[in-house]
Amino acid sequence: MEVIGNGQVQVLGMLVSVGKDYRSLIDLGPKGAGNQKVFFKLLDARIIARAIEAIASAGGLRFPHDASRIRLRPRDGSGGEAAREAMAQIGSSLGDETSSSSDNDQIDGDVLLRVARAKEGSVLTLLDSLLPVDWASEGGHSKLYSLALLGNVDIEVDGNVVDYRPVVLFDDVHELEGGQREALYGQLLDRSNRLGRWIAERKEAVPDDELLAGTTDGRDYQLVALEDELSAGSKGGHSPRLERILGGIADSRAQVPLASLGVHEAFTSLLRSVDPIDSSRKSEILNTVFSNLRDLVEKNPQYRSWIPAAEAEFSSPDRMEIACQWRELEIIIERDVRRSPPALFDLDVGFEHATRLASSSTRAAARLFLAKEFGLPYYAGSDALADLSSRNVEQYLGLGGDLFEMMTSAVTQRKRTGAHLSAAEQDQRLRRSSKQLWEAVVRRVAHGPDVLALLHIIADHSRAETFRPTAPYAPGVTGTAIEFYDRELLFARTEHGALGRYERLSRALSSAVANNLLEMSAEPTSTKGRKWSVIYLNRLLCPHFDLPLQRGGFREQPIAKLSRRLELAVQAKGDRPVPDPKESLSLIEGWPK
Length: 593
Prior knowledge:
The protein is an alpha+beta fold.
């Protein structure tokens, strides 16, 4: 579908965010079917207001001042009758204002906008009321009349018909309450509606089969898994394709402001930092790592031939690269010692055995270990920035904006000659952003203390598994998993309709996923002969716990144990704003092993 053709707008997008106000209807509004009618009434009002705004914007008019220059003419036939009926229902509670405004069967845009705003205001006034509301006497909409109206009219601006194909764009649909979302889908899947409908929601928050059962992909709807498209070709969770897309957005946004400061390099290239480690520090790190390896070999003499063999093979001019190779060798020995049965004699293990056990994931674990042990910058570069976005463009732009501000501040204050940021500067700022996200959890999401405790459990468990001497899940663990078929237990209800024994875990997990703090796989992952539903931390939560950014590493937990740990963690930690990575939750008395 071409949005612009021959220099003219052809598709008219009307963006309606459903992330605010609507959930309040569940708590404060009427019960049962009445709640759905008030929900449709408020949504109809906002769809119409956004439609008038979009028409004005596409036609170069001022909104709302020029709304009277817009008219909607019902088409001939049954579609036009549907539009007239919809307009009658929309304006029914405001007397004859809409009908008296019609001239030759046209609907005045200014009057329509006033009708929409009056309806929206009436609902919001009731929600804000300090006195009990008699909801039974309040009118509502039995369906979304705005869809029938906008799909069956011709649009005129200053008396001239404009050929716009309207498309209603619903954003943040996952933030609706379950019944509201289901009601909205029921309206949008009605094929009698003659305008385009576009729905955006997080895939992991709303499983594909939850609302689309009984409908046909490609006929009733077309599902586009944007996250899957962006992550195509990813390896270990890092997607070069996503990095290119996000980097392109950042470079485009930063180009003009940087040029105004005399900086003519791309934003992402300015993140390729100069090595911040001086020569003496490198030597100190290399000597310490080699000393630790030699002590380990003295305790396990069967590996004594590995040191001279490695010295002959490790020929990089970069001492930090050699330190990483030595650290990887230490991990390999720790792993092999625990794997091999005790021997009566210390038979020499050939160095070719180390070559077979080495891998890119073990090398990545060695880099992470070095960063933690020596306080080296780890979270830096355009690739790290893309990974920290957790496939969320808004999160990426927030992080990129912080780094961009550091660049421009340094240039304008002449703290340096260029705008490049060192790895240490990037690492420090991104760790700060990670801590800020942890601090915001309690006040930002529903069931905040429970969500914070759940995140702390997963992060604490991941940290303990990541930094085991053998690095068994190299480069590290960044999530947990529950049995795929146990997910039903999370939402099992009692005979009275209340959530069952896992109520706290169910609510915390649902809130964390809906708010993009956890990513829960929709498809099962098979390991150890069983199927698991993997739950990963949002990547931006990882720096506060020194965790890697790759996906793939997780440690499964029985749902009963995870639930018990959550109960204990909530009791022990309360609503403290941010956990201390140095405090292990496993020290809590009664913690299940």
